[in-house]
Amino acid sequence: QAQFVESGGGLVQPGGSLRLSCEISGFSIDAEAMGWYRQAPGKERELVTSISWSSGYTYYADSVKGRFTISRDHAKNMVYLQMNSLKPEDTAVYYCNKVAATPSDYWGQGTQVTVSS
Questions:
Q1: Mean pLDDT of 83-107
Q2: Fewest C-beta in 10 Å: which of 39, 58, 75, 108?
């Protein structure tokens, strides 16, 4: 069974940076497009960024383009999210999962990111 352990969140001031990590077990990410999602209070979970299995293609939501960078380490079976120039509207719980994941699939606990002065 797929397992995701997200970490690296925290409280940061506007303009600050965080690097999120996602440790994946139960399957190999080698042939999977992976993504980072976030869910803010009162809102639906949304795909923020994704990376193809070969790392040759990345997608970023307009709201994070130019500030966030997704990467993956096949050897460690991990996915990362570097977040710079954070804004209060980036406050959310962040999750990693396959791009093909559905709400009924397994999701990890996520990691809380709070951007506030």
A1: 95
A2: 75
